[in-house]
Specification:
Distance between the termini: 45 Å
Helix content: 55-70%
Oligomer: single chain
Number of strands: 5
Radius of gyration: 26 Å
Shape: globular
Strand order of the largest sheet: 1-2-3-4-5
Length: 402
Amino acid sequence: MFISDLPPWFIHASAFVWGSLWGSFFNVAIYRWPRDMSVVTPPSHCTHCQTEIPAHRNIPVLGWFILRGKTACCGNKLSPRYMLVELVSGLLCVALAQVYVLGQSPTASLSEAAISTLLFFFFVGGLLIATFVDLEWMEIPDEISIGGTALGLATISLRHPSPEAADLALGAGGAFLLVQILLVWSWERITGRRGMGEGDSKFLMFIGAFLGWKGAIFALVGGAMQGTVFALLSAVFGRGGESASEGGGEGESEGESEGESESGGESEGESESESEGESESAGESEGEGESEGESEGESEGESESESDGASGGGSESDDPDHWVPPAPLALRDGSRAALLDGGKRLEVEDDKGRLLWEYVSAEPNPTGLRRAIPFGPFLALGALEFLFFGDRLIEAYLGLFL
């Protein structure tokens, strides 16, 4: 069967339906993989009331509008993020069909073109999953990086036109070693802080396994440039850390109020873990209050002047030169919170020592919570740009200097 045997509208429509259906699965993976859950069992269910979602209410894209952004079982809000994932997945599949099916010769084999399109669809699906997981969790699942790399290298002969195996092997291995040696190990050795995470190096390996060494370099350089522009624009128009604080707060409150279905809503598990963290913090605060009460009692017994100082707030305790930082707080998920700089800065790091949040109280313009910017989404964006427009972008870039 040839490509010309099917009308373009049918190919586009089939691609969108296929892509949006898989987008529903991508939502499940985004929810479950960071929590070490199976994507097979249990079936999709409301995470608030645990009601299983019937198939007729799990329609990609349209289901969110039909339900008016709320779960049918318990009325909790459905985040538009899940509808967005399904929509973007469908549109990306249409774009791939345009390039790898309709962009080929009309007399080309439809089955060969469909296989190439399918393989690259799983590639862009991995980019999509990694983007949303990294935005929320500051990590990239190994199921995408390692599993996707194996898929890319194992299916070289199935792509048409078939790429050079050496090109893809160099792209995967070279990209991983480049980032791991220079921007992870060496950068940490020199500065004491990693320039990129190990998840980014493995993610770039996945990109190189599909796009080769040119695509990996383009994703790294292009992603870095676009990430820098985003950071500068956020600092200028978003007032830096304060806007990040507002965005993070909205995201947390939305996640807490939206314990709904995995295919159409935020995780209740996240809000539960936040509640546990808050209860632990509250417990520590009570413990600190008791210890303060005991210390005040002792000071009253020792001297009247010390008692007055304690009741008045104690200027010595407010002096950063005499301030003793409390022990870092380790949470159940492995993250660590510590007060620094005389209590003016709060840092929250994950279990691998990567900065997640930073609260800085400074005068005269105190900043709010500043969330570290994940690099994975920018790598994914650079990979997509190279996949669809690589040759034209490289020519335009070289044209600036030649």
